UniProtKB/TrEMBL annotation:
InterPro entries: RNA-binding_CRM, RNA-binding_domain, RNA-binding_YhbY, YhbY-like_sf. PROSITE patterns: CRM. Residues 1-96 form the CRM domain. PANTHER family: RNA-BINDING PROTEIN YHBY. It comes from Bacillus canaveralius. The lineage of its organism: Bacteria, Bacillati, Bacillota, Bacilli, Bacillales. This is Ribosome assembly RNA-binding protein YhbY. One of its GO terms (molecular function) is RNA binding. Keywords: RNA-binding.
């Protein structure tokens, strides 16, 4: 689990990122979870946007992504979810 200090640090790092995935009408599926897991391995910190036409609410989407990828939920702001997962091979961020 992340501490408050670590979450603050990750939020500051995520501020400048653009969302690289969008959850739309189809919601979260296995393929999307797999792609997000691969992106987390490559980048460690990613943003995912939830489109207006998504049938699942943001909390449900966040829960499914966290459960499917094993990532940590950093924050949910509006329709943006920020996820972090420490990379095994491409470690870039050092948590405080």
């Amino acid at each position: 689990m992340l501490t408050g200090k670590q979450k603050r640090f990750l939020r500051s790092k995520a501020h400048h990122l653009n969302p690289i995935f969008q959850v739309g009408k189809g919601g979260v599926n296995e393929n999307m979870v797999k792609q997000i897991a691969e992106a987390l391995e490559a980048r460690e910190l990613i943003k995912i946007s939830i489109l207006q036409n998504s049938e699942e609410d943001r909390d449900t989407v966040a829960e499914k992504l966290v459960a499917g990828t094993g990532a940590e939920l950093v924050q949910i702001i509006g329709n943006i979810i920020v996820l972090y997962k420490e990379s095994m091979e491409n470690k870039q961020l050092t948590l405080p």
